[in-house]
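From the shared-data thread, chain only:
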Amino acid sequence: MQGRIKKLNSKNENTSGKYVAYIMEASQRAFYNHALEFAISFANTLKKPLVVVYN
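Structure, as tokens:
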């Protein structure tokens, strides 16, 4: 999965927030969605809830 994820800017992640936000636009699926899987993993690592928003 790491080969599919790339950082778009030089800013560090904000790990002090209350949740991890994932904005879903094109890939409206729960399975085989690498970005969603990454967001879930990141939220679990931080022990924070994941908020999924469909735009």
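Residues 34-46 form the longest helix (13 residues).
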